[in-house]
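Figure S7 source data.
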Amino acid sequence: MNLRRAVFPVAGYGTRFLPASKAIPKELLPIVDKPAVQYVVEEAVAAGVETAIFVTAEGKSAIEDHFDRNLRLEAFLAERGKHDLLEVVRHVGTMVQVVAVRQKEALGLGHAVLQAAPVLGDEPFAVLLGDDIIVGHPPAIARLAELGRQTGAPVIAVMEVPREEIRHYGCVAGDLVEPGVWRVRELVEKPPPEVAPSNLAIIGRYVLTPAVLHALAATPPDRAGEIQLTEGLRRCLAAGPVYACTFPGKRYDAGNKADFLRATVEIALRHPELGPGFRRMLEEVFAEVQEK
Ligand code: UTP
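C-alpha coordinates for the predicted uridine 5'-triphosphate complex:
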Protein backbone atom coordinates (compact mmCIF):
# COMPACT_ATOMS: atom_id res chain seq x y z
CA MET A 1 0.00 0.00 0.00
CA ASN A 2 1.44 3.29 -1.14
CA LEU A 3 0.68 5.75 1.63
CA ARG A 4 1.56 9.13 0.15
CA ARG A 5 -1.16 11.33 1.61
CA ALA A 6 -2.20 11.95 5.19
CA VAL A 7 -5.19 13.86 6.51
CA PHE A 8 -4.82 15.88 9.72
CA PRO A 9 -8.23 16.99 11.02
CA VAL A 10 -7.53 20.14 13.03
CA ALA A 11 -10.87 21.95 12.81
CA GLY A 12 -12.18 21.22 16.32
CA TYR A 13 -12.66 23.92 18.95
CA GLY A 14 -10.37 22.32 21.52
CA THR A 15 -12.80 23.09 24.35
CA ARG A 16 -10.85 20.95 26.83
CA PHE A 17 -7.95 23.38 26.45
CA LEU A 18 -9.79 26.67 26.96
CA PRO A 19 -8.84 29.40 27.52
CA ALA A 20 -5.40 28.56 26.00
CA SER A 21 -7.08 27.45 22.75
CA LYS A 22 -9.35 30.48 22.37
CA ALA A 23 -7.22 32.43 19.87
CA ILE A 24 -4.37 29.92 19.31
CA PRO A 25 -5.16 26.53 17.78
CA LYS A 26 -4.49 23.89 20.45
CA GLU A 27 -2.46 22.01 17.82
CA LEU A 28 0.11 24.83 17.94
CA LEU A 29 0.61 24.77 21.71
CA PRO A 30 4.27 23.85 22.19
CA ILE A 31 5.44 20.61 23.73
CA VAL A 32 9.00 21.53 24.78
CA ASP A 33 10.22 23.24 21.59
CA LYS A 34 7.79 22.18 18.85
CA PRO A 35 4.06 22.70 18.34
CA ALA A 36 2.08 19.55 19.15
CA VAL A 37 1.01 19.06 15.52
CA GLN A 38 4.65 18.96 14.35
CA TYR A 39 5.24 15.72 16.26
CA VAL A 40 2.29 14.18 14.43
CA VAL A 41 3.32 15.45 10.98
CA GLU A 42 6.89 14.21 11.59
CA GLU A 43 5.52 10.76 12.42
CA ALA A 44 3.68 10.68 9.07
CA VAL A 45 6.70 11.97 7.14
CA ALA A 46 8.90 9.32 8.78
CA ALA A 47 6.45 6.73 7.42
CA GLY A 48 6.82 8.05 3.86
CA VAL A 49 3.91 10.52 3.64
CA GLU A 50 4.61 13.28 1.10
CA THR A 51 1.45 15.40 1.28
CA ALA A 52 -0.23 16.69 4.45
CA ILE A 53 -3.88 17.61 4.04
CA PHE A 54 -4.96 19.81 6.94
CA VAL A 55 -8.70 20.00 7.52
CA THR A 56 -8.83 23.43 9.12
CA ALA A 57 -11.36 26.02 10.19
CA GLU A 58 -11.60 29.75 10.68
CA GLY A 59 -8.75 31.01 12.87
CA LYS A 60 -6.54 27.98 12.25
CA SER A 61 -4.51 29.01 9.21
CA ALA A 62 -1.38 29.42 11.36
CA ILE A 63 -1.16 25.61 11.24
CA GLU A 64 -0.54 25.50 7.50
CA ASP A 65 1.73 28.58 7.80
CA HIS A 66 3.89 26.63 10.25
CA PHE A 67 4.71 24.08 7.53
CA ASP A 68 5.27 26.74 4.84
CA ARG A 69 8.57 28.41 3.99
CA ASN A 70 9.14 31.77 5.68
CA LEU A 71 11.66 33.33 3.32
CA ARG A 72 11.99 36.63 5.21
CA LEU A 73 12.82 34.77 8.43
CA GLU A 74 15.24 32.50 6.57
CA ALA A 75 17.01 35.54 5.03
CA PHE A 76 17.18 37.21 8.45
CA LEU A 77 18.71 34.13 10.09
CA ALA A 78 21.18 33.69 7.20
CA GLU A 79 22.25 37.34 7.44
CA ARG A 80 22.86 37.01 11.18
CA GLY A 81 24.81 33.80 10.69
CA LYS A 82 22.33 31.78 12.78
CA HIS A 83 22.81 28.66 10.69
CA ASP A 84 21.51 26.14 13.22
CA LEU A 85 18.19 27.99 13.52
CA LEU A 86 18.05 28.47 9.75
CA GLU A 87 18.35 24.71 9.36
CA VAL A 88 15.52 24.13 11.89
CA VAL A 89 13.22 26.64 10.17
CA ARG A 90 13.98 25.28 6.66
CA HIS A 91 13.38 21.72 7.80
CA VAL A 92 9.86 22.53 9.04
CA GLY A 93 9.05 24.49 5.88
CA THR A 94 10.17 21.79 3.47
CA MET A 95 9.35 18.49 5.16
CA VAL A 96 5.98 18.02 3.47
CA GLN A 97 3.75 19.32 0.69
CA VAL A 98 0.84 21.20 2.28
CA VAL A 99 -2.82 21.21 1.25
CA ALA A 100 -5.48 22.94 3.36
CA VAL A 101 -9.19 22.31 3.07
CA ARG A 102 -11.89 23.89 5.20
CA GLN A 103 -14.45 22.26 7.38
CA LYS A 104 -16.95 25.09 7.48
CA GLU A 105 -18.82 23.76 10.51
CA ALA A 106 -17.49 21.44 13.23
CA LEU A 107 -19.78 18.54 12.34
CA GLY A 108 -17.62 15.72 13.62
CA LEU A 109 -14.46 13.79 12.78
CA GLY A 110 -16.11 11.77 9.98
CA HIS A 111 -17.36 14.99 8.41
CA ALA A 112 -13.87 16.51 8.73
CA VAL A 113 -12.30 13.55 6.90
CA LEU A 114 -14.96 13.82 4.16
CA GLN A 115 -13.89 17.40 3.46
CA ALA A 116 -10.55 16.04 2.24
CA ALA A 117 -12.19 13.68 -0.29
CA PRO A 118 -11.78 16.01 -3.31
CA VAL A 119 -7.98 16.03 -2.88
CA LEU A 120 -7.49 12.40 -1.90
CA GLY A 121 -7.74 10.65 -5.25
CA ASP A 122 -8.32 6.93 -5.50
CA GLU A 123 -5.71 5.50 -3.16
CA PRO A 124 -5.43 4.64 0.54
CA PHE A 125 -4.51 7.46 2.88
CA ALA A 126 -3.61 7.97 6.53
CA VAL A 127 -5.54 9.95 9.12
CA LEU A 128 -3.65 11.26 12.15
CA LEU A 129 -5.24 13.24 14.98
CA GLY A 130 -3.15 15.98 16.52
CA ASP A 131 -4.64 15.14 19.91
CA ASP A 132 -2.71 11.90 20.00
CA ILE A 133 1.04 12.35 20.19
CA ILE A 134 2.88 9.06 19.77
CA VAL A 135 6.59 9.15 20.49
CA GLY A 136 8.85 6.35 19.34
CA HIS A 137 10.47 4.48 16.49
CA PRO A 138 9.35 2.99 14.18
CA PRO A 139 6.52 5.48 13.60
CA ALA A 140 3.12 4.20 14.78
CA ILE A 141 1.42 4.99 11.48
CA ALA A 142 4.02 2.87 9.62
CA ARG A 143 2.75 -0.20 11.52
CA LEU A 144 -0.79 0.51 10.27
CA ALA A 145 0.48 1.12 6.72
CA GLU A 146 2.29 -2.23 6.80
CA LEU A 147 -0.91 -4.05 7.79
CA GLY A 148 -2.86 -2.06 5.20
CA ARG A 149 -0.35 -3.17 2.56
CA GLN A 150 -0.73 -6.81 3.58
CA THR A 151 -4.53 -6.81 3.72
CA GLY A 152 -5.68 -3.99 1.39
CA ALA A 153 -8.22 -3.17 4.13
CA PRO A 154 -8.77 -0.17 6.42
CA VAL A 155 -6.73 -0.33 9.63
CA ILE A 156 -7.44 1.33 12.99
CA ALA A 157 -4.95 1.89 15.81
CA VAL A 158 -6.12 0.55 19.18
CA MET A 159 -4.87 0.39 22.74
CA GLU A 160 -6.20 -1.39 25.82
CA VAL A 161 -7.55 1.04 28.40
CA PRO A 162 -9.07 0.47 31.85
CA ARG A 163 -12.71 -0.48 31.26
CA GLU A 164 -14.09 2.59 33.05
CA GLU A 165 -12.23 4.84 30.57
CA ILE A 166 -13.67 3.29 27.41
CA ARG A 167 -16.55 5.77 27.53
CA HIS A 168 -14.13 8.44 26.26
CA TYR A 169 -13.11 6.50 23.15
CA GLY A 170 -14.37 4.68 20.10
CA CYS A 171 -14.39 0.99 21.00
CA VAL A 172 -13.45 -2.03 18.87
CA ALA A 173 -14.25 -5.70 19.37
CA GLY A 174 -12.88 -8.36 17.07
CA ASP A 175 -11.19 -11.70 16.52
CA LEU A 176 -7.49 -11.87 17.26
CA VAL A 177 -5.74 -12.97 14.05
CA GLU A 178 -2.15 -12.58 15.27
CA PRO A 179 -0.63 -10.96 18.37
CA GLY A 180 -1.76 -7.32 18.42
CA VAL A 181 -4.00 -7.62 15.32
CA TRP A 182 -7.78 -8.08 15.30
CA ARG A 183 -10.26 -8.50 12.49
CA VAL A 184 -12.96 -6.07 13.62
CA ARG A 185 -16.44 -7.41 14.38
CA GLU A 186 -17.95 -4.42 16.11
CA LEU A 187 -17.33 -0.69 16.46
CA VAL A 188 -19.08 1.58 18.94
CA GLU A 189 -18.46 5.27 19.68
CA LYS A 190 -17.93 6.10 23.38
CA PRO A 191 -19.89 3.21 24.93
CA PRO A 192 -20.75 3.11 28.65
CA PRO A 193 -18.38 0.59 30.29
CA GLU A 194 -21.25 -1.77 31.27
CA VAL A 195 -22.17 -2.39 27.62
CA ALA A 196 -18.79 -1.85 25.92
CA PRO A 197 -17.91 -4.93 23.83
CA SER A 198 -14.23 -4.71 24.90
CA ASN A 199 -11.65 -2.40 26.45
CA LEU A 200 -9.89 -1.79 23.11
CA ALA A 201 -9.92 1.95 22.53
CA ILE A 202 -9.47 3.62 19.15
CA ILE A 203 -6.45 5.94 19.12
CA GLY A 204 -6.14 8.71 16.53
CA ARG A 205 -4.32 6.82 13.76
CA TYR A 206 -6.04 5.24 10.78
CA VAL A 207 -5.21 3.93 7.34
CA LEU A 208 -8.34 4.34 5.25
CA THR A 209 -9.41 3.41 1.73
CA PRO A 210 -11.67 5.21 -0.76
CA ALA A 211 -14.43 2.74 0.28
CA VAL A 212 -14.45 4.38 3.74
CA LEU A 213 -15.07 7.77 2.13
CA HIS A 214 -18.06 6.31 0.25
CA ALA A 215 -19.40 4.85 3.50
CA LEU A 216 -18.89 8.18 5.31
CA ALA A 217 -20.76 10.04 2.57
CA ALA A 218 -23.74 7.79 3.29
CA THR A 219 -23.45 8.03 7.10
CA PRO A 220 -26.16 10.13 8.74
CA PRO A 221 -25.31 12.55 11.56
CA ASP A 222 -25.72 11.26 15.13
CA ARG A 223 -28.02 12.82 17.73
CA ALA A 224 -25.54 15.65 18.30
CA GLY A 225 -25.55 16.40 14.57
CA GLU A 226 -22.03 14.98 14.03
CA ILE A 227 -20.86 12.45 11.45
CA GLN A 228 -18.67 9.99 13.35
CA LEU A 229 -15.72 8.29 11.70
CA THR A 230 -16.40 5.26 13.93
CA GLU A 231 -19.89 4.96 12.46
CA GLY A 232 -18.56 5.27 8.89
CA LEU A 233 -16.09 2.46 9.59
CA ARG A 234 -18.83 0.34 11.18
CA ARG A 235 -20.75 0.63 7.94
CA CYS A 236 -17.73 -0.71 6.05
CA LEU A 237 -17.79 -3.98 8.02
CA ALA A 238 -20.53 -5.46 5.83
CA ALA A 239 -18.53 -4.84 2.63
CA GLY A 240 -15.17 -6.38 3.68
CA PRO A 241 -12.64 -6.76 6.46
CA VAL A 242 -11.47 -3.94 8.70
CA TYR A 243 -8.45 -4.52 10.96
CA ALA A 244 -7.35 -3.03 14.25
CA CYS A 245 -3.81 -3.20 15.58
CA THR A 246 -1.66 -2.05 18.44
CA PHE A 247 1.26 0.23 17.62
CA PRO A 248 4.81 0.93 18.77
CA GLY A 249 5.63 3.99 20.88
CA LYS A 250 4.22 5.87 23.84
CA ARG A 251 0.96 7.73 23.36
CA TYR A 252 -0.15 10.95 25.05
CA ASP A 253 -3.61 12.51 24.85
CA ALA A 254 -2.42 16.05 24.12
CA GLY A 255 -6.01 17.32 23.98
CA ASN A 256 -6.19 16.82 27.74
CA LYS A 257 -4.39 19.28 30.05
CA ALA A 258 -2.96 16.70 32.47
CA ASP A 259 -1.64 14.38 29.73
CA PHE A 260 -0.26 17.38 27.84
CA LEU A 261 1.79 18.24 30.95
CA ARG A 262 2.99 14.65 31.20
CA ALA A 263 4.07 14.73 27.53
CA THR A 264 5.90 17.99 28.16
CA VAL A 265 7.79 16.62 31.18
CA GLU A 266 8.68 13.24 29.63
CA ILE A 267 9.74 14.68 26.27
CA ALA A 268 11.77 17.40 28.01
CA LEU A 269 13.52 14.77 30.18
CA ARG A 270 14.50 12.85 27.04
CA HIS A 271 15.59 15.96 25.12
CA PRO A 272 19.33 15.66 24.33
CA GLU A 273 20.18 19.29 25.22
CA LEU A 274 17.50 20.25 27.74
CA GLY A 275 17.04 16.88 29.45
CA PRO A 276 19.91 16.79 32.00
CA GLY A 277 19.33 20.39 33.18
CA PHE A 278 15.58 19.87 33.30
CA ARG A 279 16.01 16.77 35.48
CA ARG A 280 18.09 18.78 37.97
CA MET A 281 15.53 21.57 37.89
CA LEU A 282 12.68 19.14 38.62
CA GLU A 283 14.63 17.69 41.56
CA GLU A 284 15.07 21.21 42.94
CA VAL A 285 11.38 21.94 42.46
CA PHE A 286 10.37 18.73 44.29
CA ALA A 287 12.76 19.53 47.15
CA GLU A 288 11.37 23.07 47.44
CA VAL A 289 7.77 21.89 47.41
CA GLN A 290 8.50 19.25 50.07
CA GLU A 291 10.16 21.83 52.34
CA LYS A 292 7.01 23.95 52.37
P1 UTP B 1 -11.84 16.12 19.60
O1 UTP B 1 -13.29 16.17 19.91
O2 UTP B 1 -10.92 15.38 20.49
O3 UTP B 1 -11.23 17.58 19.48
O4 UTP B 1 -11.66 15.64 18.12
P2 UTP B 1 -11.81 18.99 19.72
O5 UTP B 1 -13.26 19.06 19.39
O6 UTP B 1 -10.92 19.96 19.02
O7 UTP B 1 -11.49 19.15 21.26
P3 UTP B 1 -12.37 19.16 22.57
O8 UTP B 1 -12.84 17.74 22.75
O9 UTP B 1 -13.45 20.17 22.35
O10 UTP B 1 -11.40 19.60 23.61
C1 UTP B 1 -10.52 14.89 17.68
C2 UTP B 1 -9.85 15.54 16.50
O11 UTP B 1 -10.76 15.74 15.43
C3 UTP B 1 -10.77 17.09 15.00
C4 UTP B 1 -10.22 17.89 16.18
O12 UTP B 1 -9.58 19.08 15.71
C5 UTP B 1 -9.27 16.93 16.84
O13 UTP B 1 -7.97 16.97 16.25
N1 UTP B 1 -12.14 17.47 14.65
C6 UTP B 1 -13.17 17.15 15.47
C7 UTP B 1 -12.38 18.18 13.49
O14 UTP B 1 -11.44 18.48 12.71
N2 UTP B 1 -13.64 18.53 13.18
C8 UTP B 1 -14.71 18.22 13.98
O15 UTP B 1 -15.85 18.57 13.63
C9 UTP B 1 -14.45 17.50 15.16
